Amino acid sequence: MKRALVLLLLVSLTVGVFAGGQQEQPAEAAPAAAEGPWVPTRPITIITHVGPGGGMDVATRLFVDIAREFTDATFVVENITGGGTINASRAVLDRPADGYTIFGMAMSNVNSVVANEFDRGTFIDGYHWIAKIQRDPAAVIIRKSDRDAGMDFDGIIEDARRRGGRQVWAVPVLGGNKHFEALMIWQATGVEATATPFESGPLGAAAVLGGAADVQMGNPFNAAGRDLWVAAIASPERMDGFEDSPTFAELGFPELNDEHIWRGFAVKQGTPRAMIEWFQGIVSQVHQHPRWRAFNAENAIMPRAVFDDDFRKIVDSTMEKTEFWLRELGMLD
Amino acid sequence: MIDILVNLGGGFEIMFTPMAILLCLLGVFAGITFGAIPGISPSMAVALLLPMTFRLEPILGMVLLLGAYKGANYGGSVSAVLINTPGTPSAAVTAFDGYPMAKSGRVGEAMGVSLYASVIGGIIGTVVLILFAAPLARVALRFWPSEYFALTVLGLTTVATMGGKHWQKALVAVVFGLLLNTVGMEPFAGTRRFTFGEVRLFEGFSIVPAIIGLFALGELFYNLEHYSKGEKFDKLAYKLPKLSYYLTVWKNITRAGILGTIIGIFPGAGGTIAAFISYDVEKRFSKKPDEFGKGSPEGVAAAESSNSSSAGGALVPLLALGIPGSATAAVLLSSLLVHGLNPGPEMFVDEPELVYGMFASMFMANAFILVVGLLGAQLFVRVTDLSKKLLYPLIFVFAIVGSYAVTNSMYPVVVCLAFGVVGWIFRRYGFPTAPIVLGIVLGRLAEMSFRQALMIGGIESFYQRPLTLIMLLTAIAAVVYPIVKKRITGRAAIGRED
Fold first, then answer.
1. What is residue A33's predicted lDDT score, i.e. its pLDDT?
2. B190 vs A173: CB contact, 8 Å cut-off?
3. Of B262, B366, B253, which is closest to residue B302 (Cα–Cα)?
4. Contact between chains at A294 and B51 (C-beta distance less than 8 A)
5. What sign has the CA pseudo-torsion B39, B42, B46, B47?
6. CB distance A104 to A132 below 8 Å
7. Mean pLDDT, range A66-88, rounded to an integer
8. Does B412 reach chain A within 8 Å, measured CB to CB?
9. Closest Cα to residue B457, out of A213, A183, A210, A198?
10. Taking CB atoms and an 8 Å cutoff, what residues of chain B touch A78?
11. For residue range A316-327, what is the model confidence (pLDDT) as tens digits?
12. How far is CA B275 from CA B210, B213, B264, B387, in A?
């Protein structure tokens, strides 16, 4: 039986070396197929970088559920987490550009490429940016009890000034979008505060509710249903369900009024144009669907259908912003 | 109280419909099956069923998901007891005593204790949830990072009892586990540590494949090394004990159930920490502490009861505040959101049928776990009857496939194999592997909460907040007390000899 042990260990070693040494380089782009209507003949996999229950995961699962009304295609949602979102991206790029693999991604994927100095030629230019589907506005959140005691956005800023950097703002991670948004607000208002990471929006909300943090830099949805109030929101006008929350423009900071995180879909470069157009058609139909509209409205998210070059411009702008703030923070050489 | 009973009655009315019963049973069955497969955690089991709920009524969707949640929590213990392969991270603690019991022929007893402890623990968690959701949620919010850090320190002190006489070896193992957490992207700003430019190391060593490797493969390699032809398991007692037997562990189940619920309410703490701490507490309370780790039914009862009850605890912040207390609660939250429901204090007023329907479904899920568990146990226990020539390769395949399932990639398989070798080496040289798991589980939370506490309140956080101070002092006492007691006992013995 000791032979069996040696054999098993050898098998383990071989599998390990094989798996460890596998070159997970993106495969060569497949040649574009002949033009014509694209008809899927097998299931389409949408890979997301978040785990089950994450923002993009829920949005994607609902999206494909609604999409069933417009197509007979079968969609499979696959969660590939870890590696600072790059594992999912690699998995998409490793598969053929035949239209059967879509990347359900978010702004954090672009942040990760910049922050980790990954090859942009591969992880940004390697994609065709099909459609941005959601715009999740930035929101400054405090306790309702503080609001009832007279606190508002101006009060937050005044308190921050008084405490000289000791006011605690909950963000999910340092060097992430919410941290950048907080920095922009502090810069615009001329104050300093302490950004403390609490890993996720809900945990950040819990930190504010419990008093561990004074303010949450989040999305309006983080306040919904909780004893929290949105003191400022990045939106062209006041949002349904948040009628008592002023926009940044109303508060005198129009430059902050467009801050948001986005979610969307991308495919590997070389994917047949016909497939891209077919999927964009699905996006347009889902975008108008009452269930999609209702889901987004209930979560204070703005549904979007921004395609191709327009989406790519948003990606480029995200890269610029990320690079700028990471340099400001000394987190990028 | 009357209101609660009336609402609960309404909840049971919803549950006693054919569709609700069927979905609850389906959820429990799927949960137990998924939970028993290493690599599929309760959150993954629930997520796999999530799309089914989009077109169901919200309450029916929750019935299905809660059934799966509860079922998966129990299912994890099945493979832990039978083949030392915890199906879920929290079931690792069940394996400490469950597997030795199975190995020594008491497989029916081990399965029975884990089943009943899981069911009763689940009921305790549900009752606490129904009665005290709102006040407990407020307590959970008062838990600041300094308290979380103190909780992790308290958790780490369990290593003192885990190691027994060989506490130094246990200490080495737990430090090894803690150090493993330093590999990968640190939780604060995503700075890379010890990744050597290898992207796959960015995520560090994830807990599930590490546990599968340490327990299943480590044991497998060790057994193969010490295998001799014709060797068999001890004579197996398949039969589950009579009901009266479980009275011998009722105190352990109750205490661990309450403790598990309390720890479960703190977002981020989770069932694994609950199981470790409850196990430690029960060992300290036990009249036979030496049996822990060698096949103690009290150990199995403590681990399973606390693990199961922590599921109820995790729903406290979810339902009362809309804050998911665990990864699985996050998936449940997403199901509610898809239906346009925002959990929180208002949901108890606006949607009482939904909230109390969920409570009722948790009771029903526990009943179904008992039924499915009792029927299934007769079948599951036969696994140990397999020839080792068949069983060992099966465990190997099970471990590899389970690891692959974690992220559908080969990286967790490599981690599993590497930890298998580590587990084997540790076992060979008499180092316990359980403290490694403890170190991995607590390391990240300890680092995160320590740094958060420093940012928020500086070093003063650790002595100016009373609860933090109490927990830190308790942790010190937990380590010092056995040493002092041992010395006093030793001196007394020497005195008597003189």
1. 46
2. yes
3. B253
4. no
5. negative
6. no
7. 87
8. no
9. A213
10. 408
11. 999 999 999 999
12. 18, 20, 10, 32
Which helix (H) or strand (E) segment holds residue A78: the answer is: strand A75-79
| B455 → closest Cβ in A57, A194, A298 | A194
pLDDT, tens digit (0-9, with 9 covering 90-100), for A243-252: 999 999 999 9
Q: Are A51 and A57 in contact (CB under 8 A)?
A: yes
Kindly list the distances between the CA atom of residue A322 and the CA atoms of A118, A179, B187, in Å, as whole numbers in the listed order.
Answer: 13, 10, 19
Distance CA B40, CA B365 (A): 19
pLDDT at A5: 54
**Shortest CB distance from B456 goes to which of A90, A176, A212?**
A212
Identify the pLDDT of residue A144.
95
**Which helix (H) or strand (E) is A102 found in, with range?**
strand A101-106
Predicted TM-score of the model (pTM):
0.82
Instruction: Say how far apart CA B240 and CA B110 lie, in whole Å.
Output: 8
pLDDT over 50 at B98, yes or no: yes
Q: Which two tokens stand for residue A328?
A: 């400001």
Residue B398, C-beta contacts closer than 8 angstroms, at least 6 positions apart: B37, B38, B79, B83, B85, B216
Q: Quick one: which H or E segment has residue A261?
A: strand A260-268
DSSP 8-class letter at A68: T
Answer yes or no: is pLDDT of B51 > 90: no
B467 in reach of chain A (CB within 8 A): no
**CB spacing of A52 vs B410 below 8 angstroms:** no
Chain A contacts in chain B segment 139-178 (CB below 8 A): 140-145
Rounded to whole angstroms, how far apart are CA atoms A91 and B426?
35
- Domain count of chain B? 1
Cα–Cα distance measured from residue A2 to residue B84, given in angstroms and rounded to the nearest whole number: 21
**A-B C-beta contacts closer than 8 Å:** 199
CB contact under 8 Å between A197 and B322, yes or no, is: no
Q: Per residue, what are the HEC states of B211-252?
A: HHHHHHHHHHHHHHHCCCCCCCCCCCCCCCCCHHHHHHHHHH
For residue B51, the tally of other CB atoms under 10 A from its CB is: 16
Q: Which of B54, B340, B408 sits opposite A78 (nearest CB)?
A: B408
Distance, C-alpha B413 to centroid of its chain: 22
Which tens digit of pLDDT belongs to each residue from B352-392? Answer: 888 899 999 999 999 999 999 898 887 877 776 777 778 88
> Do B305 and B256 form a contact (C-beta atoms < 8 A)?
yes
Is residue A291 within 8 Å of A62, Cβ to Cβ?
Answer: yes
Residues with Cβ within 8 Å of residue B478, at least 6 apart in sequence: B154, B157, B160, B280
3-state secondary structure of A79: strand
Its domain, for residue B430, covers 2-497
Helix (H) or strand (E) holding B193: strand B192-193
The verdict on a CB contact (< 8 Å) between B413 and A226 is no
Indicate the range of A157-166, B35-44, B49-58, B63-72 predicted with least confidence. Answer: B35-44
Domains and CATH numbers, chain A: 43-136+261-328 (3.40.190.150), 139-256 (3.40.190.10)
Q: Are strands A101-106 and A44-48 parallel, antiparallel or unpaired?
A: parallel
CA–CA gap between residue A70 and residue A289 (Å, rounded): 11
Residues of chain B found within 8 Å of residue A203, distances taken between Cβ atoms? 267-268, 323
- Distance, in Å, from the CA atom of A177 to the CA atom of A198, rounded to the nearest integer, reads 14
Among A16-25, A257-266, B397-406, name the one with the lowest average pLDDT. Answer: A16-25
Eight-class DSSP state of B406:
H
A20 neighbourhood in chain B, CB within 8 Å: 200, 414
CB B183 within 8 A of CB B394: no
Taking each helix axis as running N to C, give the angle between helix B434-457 and helix B167-180, from 0 to 180 degrees, rounded to the nearest 10.
60
H-helix or E-strand containing B428?
A: helix B411-428
pLDDT at B253: 94
CA atoms within a 13 Å half-sphere pointing along the CA-CB vector of B482: 18
* Angle between helical axes of B411-428 and B218-225 (0-180°, round to 10): 50
